[in-house]
Amino acid sequence: MSPSTLFFSLVGGVLPTLFWLWFWLREDRLHPEPRSLIFLSFTWGMLVVLLALPLEQWMWNITSNMTLVIIGWAILEEVLKLVASYRGALRDRANNEPIDSLIYLITTALGFAALENTLFLAGVFKTGGFVDGLDLGILRFVGATLLHVVSSGALGFFLALGFYKRGSIKKIDAGVGLVVAIILHVLFNLFILKSEGNGLYTLTVFAFVWLAIILLLVGFEKIKQLKS
Fold first, then answer.
1. Which end of the chain lies in a sparser environment, N or C, as judged by fewer CB atoms within 10 Å?
2. Cα–Cα dist 169/165, whole Å
3. Whole-angstrom distance, CA of residue 223 vs CA of residue 49
4. Residue 174 belongs to what domain range?
């Protein structure tokens, strides 16, 4: 890989996710999370991509059923993002209010998206050139990156709902959140697969993602009102 390809891939893959990170961190301006935990969450999100890729390749090799592959990939990525978020911040004492779960899960998701986008762009820049890479970067900025935010945000929302609960109820909230995250991920990927060659259908899918972002913002406001 040439230095220029690496540079443009990093710029296109990482900078947009840093913009989204800035955007979501503004949702908790009253009690901002420690920068060290934000950094760890983002970094762990990037690191688990290196585990996800060979496992996804293995899934691709063992079945020719694309639907099963998409479901398997979604389960793998959502579980890995949860593990990464736990390693990065959720287990820390600084995770001391409901909204923290949302912030840390979204931060981890953006780290995951940053490296995933960079690798995708590197391949496109190498084979298709700058224009194709720019087109893909824009699509991932408004589509795939926000998918990771929405799915992990949904899980973070349910973790936040269970923050003050005890025992099995807390675990049920976490389980429901993980299932919801996986379902959102699967549906998005299935719709994108179906929309190949149909620009209007693709725009419709992205419109639903943006609607989910609006609902996530509403979810933030609900979580801010939770009391112990």
1. C
2. 6
3. 29
4. 3-224
